Amino acid sequence: MPGGVNIPLIGKEALQTQWWVPLKPALQGVIIKVLGHYFHEDLEGIVSEAEITLANPNVTLRVADRFTINEEGKITQQENHFDPREVTGG
Predict the structure, then answer these.
(1) Residue range of the domain that includes 56
(2) What is the pTM for the complete model shown?
(3) H-helix segments, 1-90
(4) Is residue 10 part of a domain?
(5) Cα angle vertex 62, ends 53, 50, to 5°?
(6) Closest Cα to residue 81, out of 58, 57, 31, 47?
(7) Which end of the chain is more exposed for a tag (fewer CB within 10 A), N or C?
(8) CA angle 80, 31, 28 (to 5 degrees)
């Protein structure tokens, strides 16, 4: 995937053209339900939580991405976490 952890993408245009466009064909039949965003008290971090349902294999993942933010409000670090167990119940 372009960018990666050691070479971050910079700017909205780079995110759109280098990350989203190549990823879009792989997302056919994928459902993303954002559950919420949680902000650190001092606004130095955000966690975004979602359920992602894949078409093949037919599975739903719970995902949480943590972003560290500097004093300028820019993301300086990102951690991605997911639970591969099937989501059950409400």
Answers:
(1) 29-90
(2) 0.56
(3) 12-14, 21-23
(4) no
(5) 80
(6) 47
(7) C
(8) 100
